Predict the structure.
Amino acid sequence: ETGVTQSPTHLIKTRGQQVTLRCSSQSGHNTVSWYQQALGQGPQFIFQYYREEENGRGNFPPRFSGLQFPNYSSELNVNALELDDSALYLCASSTSGSYYEQYFGPGTRLTVT
Amino acid sequence: QQQVKQSPQSLIVQKGGISIINCAYENTAFDYFPWYQQFPGKGPALLIAIRPDVSEKKEGRFTISFNKSAKQFSLHIMDSQPGDSATYFCAASNAGKSTFGDGTTLTVKP
């Protein structure tokens, strides 16, 4: 069984640029959630995708957008990068149901200069 | 708005001791309460979780105690080991969307 994988591992971007982060969910999991983890803080929920549709969104601006593909993999896109977007971006996959067990990938470390 | 408050921020325990981390939540719509362990450079790993209709759950050395009326829950690590040294996060979830505490850095001294 393959776990959650994310790419790239690290990324450095300049303020104002756009970035795409990728996530492959664990085998059999149809739900993907994205989180932002700033240094020294807990992860913050960005949004969740289920069956290729956005299924809930946290307190993040519209320049944070996503996609889920038929194979349940997912992308997180961030436009007009700001310095405060520097963080570890985590993807978590799970199966649908009332009590989700989320399995996290290793994350993508994004640095905005 | 801090919906899940976690304490302490850091904890130092001797090998063999008991580590206790506490969390409190506000939103009564939360229906799933997981704990995660995170090592540097890694993503959080699900450790143990509890549903609100259960007051305690034990898995090996790890126990969650849950107080629904007080809206509080805690993680107890028995016989703490140096390999348990990590950052621990509590979370509260509703329909799979999780709100995390700010984490507790646990150091277990040999």
In short: Chain A touches chain B at residues 4, 31, 33, 35, 40-45, 48, 56, 58, 90, 92, 94, 96, 98-107 (CB under 8 Å). The longest strand of chain A covers residues 87-94. Chain A has a mean pLDDT of 92. The CA atoms of residues 46 and 58 of chain A lie 5 Å apart.
